[in-house]
Each structure stands twice: as C-alpha cells, then as structure tokens.
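Holo prediction — EPU.
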Amino acid sequence: MDKIRVRGGKQLQGILHVSGAKNAVLPAMAASLLTSEPIVLENSPQVRDVSTMIRVLQRMGALEPQREGSRLTLRVPKIASAEAPYELVKTMRASVLVLGPLLARCGEARVSLPGGCAIGARPVNLHIMALQKLGARIEVEHGYMVAEGRELKGADISFDSKTVTGTENLMMAATRAQGRTVLRNVAQEPEIEDLAELLNRMGAKVSGAGTEIIVIDGVDELHGAVHPVIPDRIEAGTFLMAAAITRSAVKVENCRPNHLDAVLEKLRDVGVRMEVGPSAIQVVPDGPLRPGNLVTLPYPGFPTDLQAQYMALATQAGGSSLITESIFENRFMHVGELRRMGAHIDIDAHFAVVHGPTPLTGAQVMATDLRASASLIVAGLLAEGETIIDRAYHIDRGYERIEEKLQKVGADIQRIH
Ligand code: EPU
C-alpha cells in the first residue's frame, strides 16, 4: 500500500494548478447514462473515484472511455445492466448517483445501499423519498434499492434537509419525467449548477440551479454534449491552507474564487493575506495567525470538506478556535492523528477546540478518509521532521497527483511504495 512521506519546514513558492472538481465530474459521468450519444467532459481530473465511476458505468454498458489529457469521452449506447453492485458502491458512495439516470433512461435500477462510512451514517432516505414522489416504486431488498418506474411524472417535492447527491439524482431523474418537477430546499453547491449546465447542454430544461428551488421540465430525449467541468474548490482550498500554514507565497491557479467566498472570508479573518483575481488567488505571507471559530454548513457556508484542513491550520493560531462540524456526525477522525503530531485539540460530539499555537512534529499517521488525509499533508508540510501518511489511496480518491503538484512548489513530499 502506498504511503506519502512529507519532510516539513520547507517554504513553498510558485504556482499550484487546480484540477477539475471530483464532486462535479462524478454526477456528470452518471449523466452519460441518460443518452446513447457521447458525453465529452473537459477538465476532468484523473483521480481514483473517476476510475471507480468508469467501472460502475462499464458494468451498465458504457463503452471503453476515451481520455486525451483531461478530456474524457463516455458513451453508453444502451443499458446492458441496470445494476450497481455492492462491491463497487461500497468503495465509492457516489455510485448511488446512477439511480436517477437509470430510472430516467430505462425505467429500472438495482443499486446497492451504500452503508455507513468513515465520516458518518450517510443514509439515502431522501433520495428514495423524492424518487418515489416522481412515481418510482422503490423497495429495499437484500441490501439493494430495487427501483422501477417506467413513467415518471413531474411532481412538487420538498427535501426535509439539503443533500448534494440527492438533489443531483432527482435532477437527472426528472429530466425525462412527464411534465414539470419542482424541487424545493435543494442543495446550492456549485457542483449542482455545473450538473444543470451539462443537462441543459444535453437538451434538458433545468432552471434555478444554485438557488433553493430547481424547476425541471421533462423532455422526451437527451443528446450528447461537450462540457467543461468546474475547477475543484476543495482542492483549491486545501492548497490555500498549505500555503497559509507554511507562510508561503503561492499562487493557486485555475480556480473560481467566487466558489470560495466563505473560505476566503475565514482565512482573512484569521490573518491570511490574499490577492484575488478572476481565476487565481495569490497567498501573501504576512503576520501571525489569529484563532477563528468555524461552523461547517451547506453551500454557501464553509464546506465540511475543508474542515479537517482548516483544523491543521488552526493549530498554528495564537489562541483557541472552536470548530463545529454540523454536516457529518463523525468527521473528526483526523484529530487523533493531528494530536500525534503535537496538536492540542479537545473534542466533544460535534465540537472541537484547537488550542494554538503548538509546534508540530512529524509522525507516522493514518489517513482515514479523503479530507482527513489532506489535513495530514497540510500539517506535515509544516511539521519538523518526517511525517509518513499511511493509506495514501484515500488521498488519491480526490486529489490528482498531489505530491507532484506540491513538489513543483518546493515541498519535500514523496510517494513511497
Ligand atoms: N442525508 C440524509 N439522508 C439522505 C441524504 C443525506 O440524512 O438521503 C444527510 C447526510 O447523512 C449528511 C447530510 O445529509 O448528514 C448532507 O449529506 P449530502 O447528501 O449532502 O452528502 P453527499 O451528497 O453524500 C456530497 C459530497 C461530499 C460532501 C457532502 C457535503 C459528492 C460526491 N460528495 O456528499 O464529498 O462532503 O456532499 O457537502 O458530491 C468528499 O469529497 O470528501 C465528500 C465526502
């Protein structure tokens, strides 16, 4: 199993280029199930979750995908099997995104229930409830969601709480339902807007994405499209934390600063100086870091996917920072590992108090999920001595060649086999 070794204490300098967003490309790939024509996704990142989604789609009849650099072409001439098996879904929960498009394209789907995961229980009850309101019959049998609905009908559906992939599943299912679907209290993440843009390029009629109400008028057929995937705001945010913790002059390029408003505001609050352009953010080394409280919230709030990386940064602030995780019930797995590196963090349920500044020292640590491993890299870049992060496959799920990107700006970081 690969590990990542970081020797900390190096100042970084130069440009970090952000790849396409993992959480935008995965629903876009699932959307290729909606048509027999090719879907071309530009700016798609080469990460493990994309490879897993390719395997899921190939099970369903997708042809061998074509990749030229970051351009990924997918084509599903016909649905050969409407089943997403447990062995794939258990490795990537986002596989559940095939449920909506399969129902829309062929009126049936058999998708394994994902089960719990390292960061929380993560049920899919809201996906099921909403699809049932479109007229799908869904039973849970032997660990699978067995769905049938040859004639989905538009409906007025209100989500009890915001769900990103739940919203995406419904958007895709409703593109080919009869009549109008109104989705209320939906997630507003930029990845939702990106999916709406792709669906509209495919001939769908989706409006309101990015607000709390999305309206979809069903159409008979969707066709192929070429679509540029938005830059990964979480990768960009991770790079900003890496620059801030090492007090480095780094430019984070190919990002959408307007997708990072809450993150930039928080970083400024704690004393990180940045110059923001239309598609780049330059971090300018400045004075000491101040403590700053944080609550993770659905977009446009501060993303849960950057909470762990912010926590690493907060270990260097002069005072106590209260971090509240309000999205997932178990997303503090990195705390034990950061403590082993010298951090002083108390946790109680959804709350963590980080007392800083504490010197960090390199240690052998364990990656428990994707963003936890990113926070250990951020901490390792500053820590004195060597940090060895075990289970590097977690980081590869969502960051494209992170060690190569960081090496280019002067970090001492290697993958070891
Ligand atoms: N929830 C329910 N019932 C449902 C669906 C969600 O109770 O049917 C709860 C969840 O348990 C959670 C909250 O609602 O407490 C929000 O979950 P959401 O459904 O929004 O999460 P998701 O769609 O499964 C996506 C991202 C995650 C990211 C979350 C929150 C993708 C593929 N995944 O997950 O990304 O953390 O939204 O922003 O888009 C990551 O990239 O590391 C990652 C975990």
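READOUT: The mean pLDDT is 97.
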